Fold:
Amino acid sequence: MLDRAPVGRPLQVLATRCTSPALHRRLAELGLRPGASVLLLARTSGGGGLLGLGDDRLAVARTVLAGVEVALATEPPGAGAPTAEQRPTAERAHHG
Amino acid sequence: MAERTLSCHTEGTTPAVAGSPRVALVGSPNSGKSTLFNALTGAGRAVGNYPGTSVEVGTGRWRDPALGEVALTDLPGAYSLDPVSPDEALTAELLADDAVDAVVVVCDAAHLARSLVLVGHVRQLPLRVVVALTMGDVAARRGVHVDEVVLAGRLGVPVVRLDPRRRDVAALAGAVGQVLAAPAPRPLCLDPVGVGPRACCADCPPGCTACPPTSAAALAAQLDGGDDDLAAAEARFGWVTATAAAASTRHDRGRRSWTDRIDRWVTAPVLGPLLFLAVMWGVFALTTSVAAPLQEGLDAVFAGPVTEAAVAVLGAVGLGGSLVEGFVVDGLIAGVGMLLTFVPLMAIMFALLALLEDSGYMARAAVVTDRLMGRLGLPGRAFLPLVVGFGCNVPAISAVRVLPDARHRLLTALLVPFTSCSARLTVYVMVAATFFPERAGTVVFAMYVTSIVLVVLGGLLLRATLIRSMGEDPLVLDLPPYQRPSLRLLGAATWMRLRGFLQTASGIIVVTVAIVWALGVIPGPGATGGLGEVPVDQSLYAWIAQTAAVLFAPTGFADWHAVGALIVGFVAKEAVISSWAQTYPAGADLSASVFGDFTVASGGHPQAAALAFLVFLLAYTPCVATLATQRRQIGGRWTAAGVLLQLAMAWVLAVLVFQVGAVLT
Structure:
């Protein structure tokens, strides 16, 4: 899960699991959706993190990070979520 | 043309000529929408480099030589038409109501994919649309280029590149004129593999999930309900990704920006909160130290030449020694003049806060306080309305609409009055300079720290008593890049807030000065003089204040001058200093008089009494305007409960501070 992922390593979102459908939708609208490339840029107060999604930056709480399943990406992060056809085969993160 | 007008929750209205075309501005938060609105209309809507600056609908007139007059509406920022908070719901509702003739979707070129989510939703409605591409300079610095021709081809609507921060907005009029002259384009089929707008649904396969709904109401229902199935969402996001990829190119892929480097320090678990405290201390220390000599200079002008000139003029027209002279000299000049001496102080503080907002730091402040807010059951985003409260509590309570959860909105609206608005600053500075001349800046900063402590204490108290259950809304905050603040925007933001302060001074304050002056010349029970002749300490004003002062005996400041000022402060905190000054003879040294009265009232512990007074001033009800806004937002019963809480906390804390302080001093 993203809360235990390494800082600064390119990752790929495999799935998002949120208790609230509204939060799930909002994360998707902000670019955090399956297939997206993501970087955990830094950890913040309270266990949350700063995420890099292309050029976008999101600050999210630890509980949100804990609901995002990621894998180490084989390519550097791109400018947005790739389409299903473009998704690379991902190696599961040891930390996830 | 649609007949319905946008009327709910509007602010800053400037009616346009009847029959003018109605154009709405929509855009994701922090896309530069309100900056564009201000550039087009000359209005002064609040702008800031953090999400959730606009929570109200703003209206204004946009006059263009070619286009004529347009009724322009600035809708609250929204990431999509699938709302998660009341401000977003308002935007979705107003667009679905077909109340506008055209929509300008402000699209952030530096965050194209994110902006396209909203663009896609709007293009599924039967509306005339123009896409205004902003933040091109930010995108260029990142090596990102957005091709507006390709984007226009994909969207099937005009796309114009603007720079509202530099007032480069001329291209918009032609594009809006073009769409107003034509029928609304067909809603867009959000087909991820398509190369342009498709004549929906003529060539779509049966069951195409990318097709738009047949009406605005159907889109709202689809987004709101279970009909918006996974396939439709996949198609929509696929379209966003494909469109962003087709319309933009980048050159310096993967380079880490200086925003990221700064954020590593500014939002770090330990260093972030410490930096936040240091920044806030710097703001208030700088404000008080720079403003002090300016304030003294203005005070000397009002107490000297202005008062002398007024006396001379009134004497020349035969009004010397009359009630009119008393009103002008003891009322207007002593009261309003005293308040005006705080203008440099307010201007410096407003400018520094605008600097923090425009630079993008305030959004980081919400991140570092998330943990603290979490202890209260509030999301980090709740910090943004609370930050607004440090300027003025009234817009802060309106700003709770950025919070999706009703219980979060309720709790935040009840806590906003504990944030120390700028009007209270005038009193802090006067009292701190009087009782703690060597450490005035530190005392003022301590009041702001106390304000944060009060928010926490109030929150814990409410969570333990009235608001036990609380929804979950974990922090998800879009962080804008840092930017070099624009001097013009800083000046505009500072002036807008200063103007609000001066409008209050010229409205409510003049009225309260007049009322206080009138009560000060009416004899109280047992007075020895008649109307206009009675000493102020035997006036009706003094009698009312002395009666109330009994309640303040344990606080150490049971002096009628101070208690009278607090009573007036219930109307507006800007009136505290003016009414306080009015109760002393013209020309008297206010600081020396207050110090003497506090020394007597406290039994020789004036500093402890002064601190108790400051704490009471901070914790009790800010002003009647705040109560009116609270009532509109959370209802009369919760507002009344809030007032009781504020008064109880203010009194208990003031007693504690004085009793402990008296033992220590």
